[in-house]
Amino acid sequence: MTSLQNYINGSFVDAAGSETIDVVSPATGDVVTVSPVSTDVDVDAAFGAARTAFTTWKRTTPSQRQGMLLQIADAMEANADELVEAQHRNTGQPREAIRVEEVITGADHLRFFAGAARVLEGKSAGEYLEGHTSWIRREPIGVVAQVTPWNYPLMMAIWKIAPALAAGNTVVLKPSDTTPESTLVLARLTQGILPDGVLNVILGNASTGQLMTEHPVPGLVSITGSVRAGMAVAASAAKNLHRAHLELGGKAPAIVFADADIAATAEGVAGAGYFNAGQDCTAVTRVLVHESIHDEFVAELVKAAEATKTGDAEDPDAYYGPLNNASHFEKVSTVIESLPAHAKVVTGGHRVGDKGFYYAPTVITGVNQIDACVQEETFGPVLTVQTFSTEEQAIEMANDVPYALASSVWTSDHGTALRVSRDLDFGAVWINTHILLAAEMPHGGFKMSGYGKDLSSYGLEDYTRIKHVMSAL
């Protein structure tokens, strides 16, 4: 089986080393391709190409960068089938979900950043000291190192690449070792659009990522991944005082008040909890429901869960596909197997089928705030349900986890929605909905969920540096 290649300086090239990784389809458990583990030789080559390209790329105008990003967006849509198939081989996700949520939406996000590149603003020039004029330059950082996860491989590549390139940086990006193929197709689509060396893709495992984050060239290191991976990246980047941009894990609560529409809320919570097999750091994982409606709500939630189907992408009724890999399947299974005696699995909690890594939509009741299934990220199609009696208690329980990425409030009372959204300690709060994102709005968390923003003008600004220039009159 032919090994995949790195994309360096505008060309696909073999990795220097001989170590490889089998890329496995989580839908079948079969090996679909082989990926190299890039070494320091490959990483040096990629950063060298990016550094050389930056000398001219940084001189391009926003309108020139906009034109290239728009061409890439058009190329994505024109080659949607190839992108979908490449990703499906690595993730087992339903093809239509990849097409809509990553190809079409990814192209839209590219177009947003193409336009955002032309509207960066700073303070106006002025005389802040007598006889001197000052102004602000907002400049690209330089070369940036980026690491993307396996849950949305193409979309996460766009979230990294688009703002970095729009701001005038060059990129060395490493996709997850389990899902490299759609990122490589994207890289190929940029050939003839981006100058050589502006975008480079390096394949490998955690050791390759460490080589990238510890490398002296990049001025910014950005990762979307687990808290453990983010902490490792931050520690590595600190050795050279690189800036870090971290979008990490989540443990999103959905707070359901007694005046909420119970059936509609249960359906919305299930949809936001089980989408992409719950492999989404913003997915609902904890349901906090008012004690007066607990039994009725759980009944509706179980109904919604049991109406949610997982299965092969060829099944038009499948809402989500498999968990991404064998190791993660074991992790999710262990969470259920290790539940305390007071917890009750009311539906799900088991494998689906006899091949692949499919897991049933799961609802767990009777859990306590200190339980591991409440405090620690599962990253699977698993919802826990707890009760609260007062608004204050609900907020305290929601905030009482290490993560602070996303949350939602479900109520028909406007005042309740405003108060609770104010007091929730999360980077995003949805009201009577959950998980939806817009290119114009920022995405990023607090606490152990990391720092920095993706999407929006705030995400673009994260890929810039600010310089003060003063001139004597």
From TrEMBL:
Catalyses:
salicylaldehyde + NAD(+) + H2O = salicylate + NADH + 2 H(+)
Q: In which pathway does it act?
A: Aromatic compound metabolism; naphthalene degradation
Q: Which residues form the active site?
A: E247
Boundaries of every Aldehyde dehydrogenase domain copy? 13-469
List the keywords (alphabetical): Aromatic hydrocarbons catabolism, Oxidoreductase
Q: What class of enzyme is it?
A: oxidoreductase
Q: Which PROSITE patterns match?
A: ALDEHYDE_DEHYDR_CYS, ALDEHYDE_DEHYDR_GLU
The terms under GO molecular function for this entry are: salicylaldehyde dehydrogenase (NAD+) activity
Stated EC number for the protein is 1.2.1.65
Pfam families reported in the protein's UniProt record: Aldedh (PF00171)
| Family membership noted in the UniProt record | Belongs to the aldehyde dehydrogenase family.
Q: Which PANTHER family match?
A: ALDEHYDE DEHYDROGENASE-RELATED (PTHR11699)
Name the chain's protein.
Salicylaldehyde dehydrogenase
State the organism named in the record.
Mycetocola miduiensis
